[in-house]
Design goal:
There is one protein chain. This protein is mainly alpha-helical. The protein folds into three domains: about 140 residues, Orthogonal Bundle (DNA polymerase, domain 1); about 200 residues, hpI Integrase, Chain A (Orthogonal Bundle); about 30 residues. Helices cover about 55% and strands about 5% of the residues. It is built from 16 helices and nine strands. Strand 1 and strand 2 form a beta hairpin. Helix 13 crosses helix 14.
């Protein structure tokens, strides 16, 4: 039992551990303070962080796992022995500098995104400490953390491929051209999970969404695919839950080629599956659920076999937005297909301009400019002054 600001005592309950041993270890780590009232003057940051984690029963398992990673790998090694009541913005700023320089205890400098997440985890934990009465204000609010820039997807053009082959360096986020995407799909056409990768490459499904598809989510007569759930994985635990956001609950229109492909796939693998079947469309060879991690490893192996430049499985989703735009669809259509809540996110993050689209835009621009110049020249030649 542990006290709360209102004076009542509530029992802490935590789940989501991969093994019983992991659960026992977590309990022992904060057990010294979790079973009695905290002595505010002697609570360390490490004690508070573990007790705070134990109260987060309302979060998704993946979010909690991410918080725990920040706490165990960075915050406790850097600040765990400090007293909560003595924590200052300068002390936290020094931790940030250490993480930027050499990663703290990890020994590897952190990427801006990871650093921001570590800071936001500490900020949330100290907000709870303020509510608990351990701190008057949250010192993490006054700490500067470099924002960095979100990496934009670039296209695997011939010069980039040559540089990668020479130096081994690759862009953080890269997508294939239309020809490269076609070559990959042709390469894996006989693979049992070809239809799954077809859906990701052309319609931008997230890996968990594709793994979570059931036959009841597909209306082949109307040509509609409904995204209503996903498979999530953290550690060895697998969970079937709602899509990432409200906008991710979406209906996608299918083309005739994809409809024919899925009909054939159903005939070959699922047999006589009727409408409304809860059976999963895609499973392992043994009939088990596909996990996001399994799909990531499988895609990496297929990518290596194809001799195409490397991309991540999630980059197929980036590429789907780019291909849809290149095909002439507008941003709003692409946003709805990808399940984004904001069209700004679609334009800023996922839609990369493919080379052929960029060249067509350049040709259109120069044609417009030269046509205007010719019209102006003709007008000047036809004036009386020009005639004189």
């Amino acid at each position: 039992m542990t006290p709360w600001p209102d004076g009542r005592r509530r029992q802490l309950r935590r789940g989501g551990f991969a093994t019983a041993e992991a659960a026992r270890s977590e309990r022992e780590q904060f057990g010294a303070t979790g079973g009695r009232e905290l002595a505010d003057a002697t609570v360390t940051v490490g004690q508070w962080l573990r007790l705070w984690l134990a109260t987060l029963v309302h979060l998704r398992g993946s979010t909690l796992c991410s918080y725990r990673t920040s706490v165990e790998n960075y915050l406790i090694p850097c600040l765990g022995g400090d007293l909560v009541r003595e924590l200052t913005a300068d002390r936290i700023q020094a931790m940030v500098a250490d993480l930027i320089r050499d990663g703290g205890a990890s020994g590897h400098p952190l990427r801006p995104g990871t650093l921001r997440h570590v800071h936001s985890t500490l900020r949330a934990a100290l907000n709870a400490a303020v509510r608990r009465g351990l701190l008057p204000t949250n010192p993490a609010w006054h700490v500067h953390v470099p924002t960095g820039r979100r990496p934009h997807a670039v296209v695997w053009t011939a010069p980039r491929i040559a540089q990668w082959q020479t130096t081994g360096q690759r862009p953080p986020v890269a997508v294939w051209t239309v020809e490269q995407t076609r070559a990959f799909l042709e390469h894996i056409h006989d693979h049992p999970l070809y239809p799954l990768f077809h859906l990701i490459a052309l319609f931008g499904l997230r890996r968990g969404e594709a793994a979570g598809l059931r036959w009841c989510d597909i209306d082949l007569d109307q040509g509609l695919l409904t995204v209503s759930q996903q498979i999530r994985q953290y550690g060895s635990r697998i969970e079937i839950g709602k899509p990432k956001s409200e906008a991710s609950n979406r209906v996608i229109g299918l083309d005739s080629v994809t409809i024919a492909l899925l009909r054939q796939y159903r005939e070959n693998t699922a047999g006589d599956v009727g409408p409304g079947s809860e059976e999963f469309m895609f499973t392992t060879r043994s009939g088990d659920l596909l996990t996001p991690q399994h799909l990531t490893h499988l895609f990496r192996a297929l990518n290596d076999e194809s001799d195409l430049p490397p991309i991540r499985l999630h980059d197929l989703r980036h590429g789907a937005g780019s291909l849809s735009l290149a095909a002439g669809n507008d941003l709003k259509t692409v946003q709805a297909m990808l399940g984004h809540s904001s069209i700004v996110l679609t334009a800023d993050t996922y839609v990369s301009v493919l080379p052929d689209l960029a060249c067509r835009a350049a040709e259109a621009t120069i044609h417009h400019v030269l046509s205007a110049a010719k019209a102006t020249s003709a007008r000047l030649r036809s004036t009386p002054a020009a005639a004189a």
